[in-house]
Amino acid sequence: MLAVSFISPAQVVEQDPNVAWQKIDKGDMVIDVRTAEEFAAGHINGAINIPFDQIVPQLAKLNLAKDTDVVLYCRSGRRSGMAQNALVKQGYSKTYNAGGLDTLMSSR
Q1: Which position among 74, 83, 87, 104 bears the catalytic label?
Q2: How far is CA 19 from CA 22, 24, 29, 71, 100, in A?
Q3: pTM score, two decimals?
Q4: In the chain, at which end, N or C, are there fewer CB atoms within 10 A of the end residue's CB?
């Protein structure tokens, strides 16, 4: 018997720093989903801070098109994954979970 499992796009965990940097370098929107305090302690240049639990209403306030390329990151990739799942459920089609800031910065 062959078991096949399907993973929906909302469950995909990308977190490849090289892909993330390619997207950042080409100008994708970068969102740091950590707390304001974490963001103030250091972040990727050009990133905006929207805590993960506020991502959907804040992007709605920005009137961001749902096909905008968005790169999300946090400390470890967990909160950026949660934010990505919430956005995908709302119809955002071009999100990328870049994972944790330390991993991103050490791959640069």
Answers
A1: 74
A2: 5, 9, 14, 10, 13
A3: 0.88
A4: N
